[in-house]
Design a protein that fits this description.
This protein is of the alpha/beta class. It is built from ten helices and ten strands.
């Protein structure tokens, strides 16, 4: 099997505080068939200056207003040249050896390649590991999207489409559910792909703000409205219990229950080589 061209997409807007570390972690990958795409939402801080410093090593750069993060993801996918495509957030980092591990798993037939994501709280020193779910049933009790550790084939995007721009929070869950329910083939990659820093939209917004996403991740993928409403009720109860637990015991204790503990392993230290 030939080595795949791997596209990595980073979307950003006013990310000057964190973007350079993200870019360096991707460009430090020991993989020569890298196509790195950056989609900027029209930054007004120093983000564009950072991007320009690395412009000669990037496959594509776009800077313009968008209709939200799903729209930005889709812009990146449309411009990606890779056989498989991954997304790394502008405040996360790709871990050493990640692209080589994905390339070794590549077989030309799998639709989604799924690696682990290391979860970090820099303020407290917490580290955990999110092992990705390999099944996406409708209205699941627990799901691990681990989208920073996921690489999707270009053919899969052509077959099932990209991100639904109406989703603001659970666009990755919706996409993977759509692909899984449509018969996509998933493969586990036994490697820590990225480091995700706790915080941001996925960890600070209550489920009330995600009602549209929760309901439509079910109804858009073949489930009925009753099942969707039941799933939303479950998510509301889960959110209430989670908030109470955090209030009593702290966020790190909850994360220890939710994610497997992770010590720093051979591939989980961000590369510090000069770029």
């Amino acid at each position: 099997m030939k080595k795949p061209v791997i596209s990595v997409i980073t979307v950003c807007r006013n990310s000057a505080a964190t973007l350079e570390e993200t870019i360096c972690s991707v460009l430090a990958q020991d993989y020569d068939l890298l196509d790195y795409v950056i989609i900027d939402g029209g930054s007004t801080d120093g983000t564009l200056d950072i991007i320009e410093r690395y412009r000669s090593r990037l496959g594509c750069v776009v800077s313009e207003p968008d209709r939200g993060i799903s729209d930005a993801f889709n812009k990146g996918i449309a411009r990606a040249k890779g056989d498989i495509i991954g997304i790394i957030n502008s405040d996360d980092v790709m871990l050493p050896g990640a692209l080589q591990a994905v390339a070794e798993a590549y077989d030309g037939a799998t639709d989604l390649y799924r690696g682990s994501v290391v979860i970090v709280n820099k303020a407290t020193g917490f580290r955990g590991r999110e092992n990705p779910s390999m099944k996406f049933p409708l209205a699941p009790f627990v799901i691990h999207c681990a989208h920073q550790g996921t690489f999707i084939s270009a053919d899969a995007y052509k077959r099932w489409g990209g991100y639904d721009i109406k989703f603001r929070y659970m666009m990755d869950f919706d996409l993977m559910t759509r692909m899984y329910q449509g018969g996509a083939q998933l493969k586990r990659v036994e490697h820590d792909i990225a480091e995700f820093r706790l915080g941001g939209v996925s960890t600070t917004n209550s489920i009330k703000k995600k009602r549209y996403d929760v309901i439509h991740v079910v109804t858009n993928n073949g489930g009925g409205r009753l099942r969707a409403e039941w799933f939303y009720l479950y998510m509301r109860l889960y959110d209430f219990a989670k908030s109470a637990f955090i209030h009593l015991f702290g966020l790190d204790r909850l994360k220890r229950l939710h994610y497997r503990h992770s010590d720093r392993t051979d591939n989980s230290a961000t590369s510090t080589q000069n770029l």
